[in-house]
Design brief:
Number of domains: 1
Pfam families: DUF525 (PF04379)
Protein name: Protein ApaG
InterPro entries: ApaG_domain, ApaG_sf, Uncharacterised_ApaG
Largest sheet: 5 strands, antiparallel
Shape: elongated
CATH superfamily: ApaG domain
Radius of gyration: 16 Å
Number of strands: 8
Order of helices and strands: EEEEEEEE
Strand content: over 45%
Distance between the termini: 38 Å
Helix content: under 10%
CATH architecture: Sandwich
CATH class: Mainly Beta
């Protein structure tokens, strides 16, 4: 698989209705779209996230698949899912990678660029 064949976009959203700022609990949803621009099907086997809050606390999350699935993404197709995370601060950053397996059995890491989790209008 050529570099850039798997294109990952992120869209974070603050969930005010699920957050309790007075208890230092800020809840965010994030929507991920994985676009297979390559010429071979891939299967997302596992994920690894590094989640950093404004206090510098880092949480590492690893697991099989995403949202209970190990999606197979054919060339020219996309897979989109939404998940969530809670932080003790109103600002944080997530980054990570997916372990993908091509239909020929080759495994590779698809990096997920760092993206900001922040209350709306907190940072301009």
């Amino acid at each position: 698989m050529t570099p850039g064949a798997i294109h990952i976009t992120t869209q974070p959203h603050y969930l005010a209705e699920r957050s309790t700022p007075d208890e230092q609990n800020y809840v965010f949803a994030y929507t991920i779209t994985i676009d297979n621009r390559g010429d071979m099907s891939v299967t997302l086997m596992s994920r690894r996230w590094l989640i950093t809050d404004a206090n510098g606390k880092i949480v590492e999350v690893e697991g099989s698949g995403v949202v209970g699935e190990q999606p197979r993404i054919a060339p020219g197709e996309q897979f989109t899912y939404t998940s969530g995370v809670s932080l003790a601060t109103p600002v944080g950053v997530m980054e990570g990678s997916y372990t993908m397996v091509q239909e020929n059995g080759d495994e590779f890491q698809a990096p997920i660029a760092a993206f900001r989790l922040a209350l709306p209008n907190l940072i301009n």
